[in-house]
Design brief:
With 537 residues, the protein is α/β, with parallel strands linked by helices. Helices cover 24% and strands 26% of the residues. It has nine helices and 46 strands. It has a 22-stranded parallel β-sheet that branches. Strands 16-19-22-25-28-31-34-37-40-43 form a ten-stranded parallel β-sheet, covered by helices on one side. Strands 1-2-5-7-9-13 form a six-stranded mixed β-sheet, with no helix packed on it. It is elongated, with a radius of gyration of 28 Å. The two termini are 45 Å apart.
Amino acid sequence: MLREPEGFFGAVPVFDCSPVDLKTRDLLAGSGCSSPNWDRVFFSGETNPSLISGTVFRGECRVHLPEGLICGAVIEDCTVMGPAVIKSCSLVRGYAVLEGSALENCGVLTWGGKPSFLGSEMDLGEETGFRRVPIVPTMDHIEAFHLASGAGRHEVEGILRRVRSLTVCGVIGPAATVTNASLVEDTVLMRGALLSCPGPVRGSLVMPGGMVMNHAQVHGSVLQWRARADTMALVTDSIVGEGSVVERHGMLNRSFLGADSVLGEGEMTASLTGPLTGMHHQSLLIATLWPAGKGNVGYGANAGSNHTSRLPDQELRLGEGFFIGLGTCVKFPADYTRSPHSILATGLTALPQKVSFPFSLITQPVRRPPSVPEGYNQIFPGWMLYDNMYALVRNAWKHEGRSTALHTPVETGPLSDGVIEFTKDALERLKSCPCDEMPGIGRNFMTEESRIRGIKAYETLLEGADLYHRMRTGELGPDSVPRLKAILRLIIEGAAASRMKDRLRGESVIDDYAETRRIPDEEPFITAIQRLIDGIG
């Protein structure tokens, strides 16, 4: 679970050094340096004193500076392993500044002991602590979900003890950069980390390539490989996954944001999302377990009704590729795990429920049959397959292009084994049950017409997935090639048709709509499918 890479928490470098001699002290004093006790200041034999000026050395300091610069700083109980730059810093205390690092125009950078992220815990999927998970720096979304689930609860205390027992050194670098930082406290910066005009950064770990920029604040948290907190974001007791970003006032609190994801402007509290999840606008996600990720939360969406007025102990489960529309209110408890690649339409109020139909649309009904209770919505099973293929194909193409994770398992395709299993199960229910007795539709209703269309859509999907798998494994016979090509052409036609609806509607309202949009046939992911068809057989 810990998966500590070599030198993960860094180490204070050891090198031969000796107390600064009288000649060097005089040279340093002449360049504006001072120390209350020069006997506790040690230089290596390769250190060039002419590179040091206007600096106060306090406590025990060890310096190896054959190249670089130390100027206008206060250094206390530090080790400097150059080449490095420390310039115009009010106080650097307790840190090992490693080779290639640069600290410029900073306020207070202090190390007082073990950072708070080693004792921090996230409330993944439930706010009252029953799914509390320790922050393990290198954990991925799969491991975090396991610990948050009933199956993994017995492992939590042992892992928490192991994390709290780790020895961590105050390290900056190597090749880390800190500029215009007012306060950095008990924070480890690994190779290539960057703090550029950050707000306070306390008790945290910034892993290789991680960034805190533009007044973002990070407290008791881990930014994994190349993760970024930007533009007044606030990250507290959380993990920002590999290659992910929290930006534009986004708030991440006691949560795990999966790899290659974006949280901008909105709030995510006590939640876990998997890879390639997008929250680009002001929205709310509380007490949610969404390990498969690859979905989107629209502007003004309110997935946060976890408080019953008695306890905030309700929760939400979302499936792979789920989409919550603009202004949609999702009431808890709810479970859409077995409804991957489905949509809750704009402006909807979704009642507490469990829904088990992949590729579906849930929307407000134009007409509600008299027998259907007030407040129920309408479900269209398989709607994404027969009326919104463009979104599915574009998402698959987009996710493949945006996946950058090297240390985190990320599956970008839309047809995982789980999705196929859920689709087979849904198809059996559509075939064997009447609409008014259909299990898995939650507090929604289904018409006979949508049941029939759902059956056809699911059957075509499963047939196409099987043929494509057989082609990839070399088991596709020549007699099956025409059918696979026909299904791939249906995907192209469905994607173009669903996009053309937008185009026709846009042209009827916006005068120059056609001049500023691509026609569907020119989309790169559609032409890629055509190349695949041309290459089969």
